[in-house]
Amino acid sequence: MSNILDKKTLILTGVIAVMVAVYLLIPVKSNSKDNNAASANDNTAFVSIELPNELSKVAQIGKLAFQSNCLTCHGENAVGQLGVAPPLIHKIYEPSHHSDESFQRAVAVGVRAHHWKFGNMPAIEGLTRGDVKAIIAYVRELQEVNGIF
Fold first, then answer.
1. Which ranges constitute the DSSP H helices of 70-128?
2. Could you give the CA distance from residue 93 to residue 149 in angstroms, rounded to a whole number?
3. Are 44 and 81 in contact (CB under 8 A)?
4. Does residue 137 sit in helix, strand or coil?
5. How far apart (Å, rounded) are the C-alpha atoms in residues 31 and 38?
6. Cα–chain-centroid distance for residue 25?
7. Assigned fold of 31-145
8. What is the rounded (10 degree) CA torsion for 81, 87, 92, 97?
9. Where are the domains of the chain?
10. pLDDT (tens digit, 9 = 90+) per residue, 73-124?
């Protein structure tokens, strides 16, 4: 069993490393007229946000992990999706109200709905605490640019 977990961890680490390398080598293009603004193009986003001019290395890795694990529900750049999941770029999720550990626990064990009426968030399998730490760095950098401290 330990061998299987070690192989899965090694494969996941390799996949993440390749994704990071590809991300860093491919220029990012924006469909928006303003390269520093973001919102969903299908009008399902809760919020329209400003994007940072650049992300830290950890947040760049977190963005990739977010896109692979969180985007389907929480939308591009964590702006949420109407009828699906809330925006993480929202005052409710500021660090003084939802600490980094609350994000860790939500991913690890899920969370009961308490601010929004989307239902409970299930646990997300396959993410390590390090993966979630990088996702949190990404979300926190987006929040900071948008005045959420």
1. 71-74, 100-109
2. 9
3. yes
4. helix
5. 9
6. 21
7. Cytochrome Bc1 Complex; Chain D, domain 2 (1.10.760)
8. 130
9. 31-145
10. 999 999 999 999 999 999 999 999 999 999 999 999 999 999 999 999 999 9
Structure tokens at 4: 């299987």
H helix or E strand, kind and range, residue 38: strand 37-38
- Taking alpha carbons only, the member of 68, 73, 51 closest to residue 121 is 73
For Cα atoms 127, 81, 148, give the angle at the middle one, nearest 5 degrees.
75
For the stretch 34-78, pLDDT in tens is 445 554 445 688 899 999 999 999 999 999 999 999 999 999 999
User: Residues 68, 125: contact at Cβ < 8 Å?
Assistant: no
DSSP character at residue 97? T
Torsion, Cα of 72, 78, 81, 87 (10° steps): 140
Show the tokens assigned to 112. 């009961």
- Full-model pTM: 0.74
In a 3-state reduction of DSSP, which class is residue 85? strand
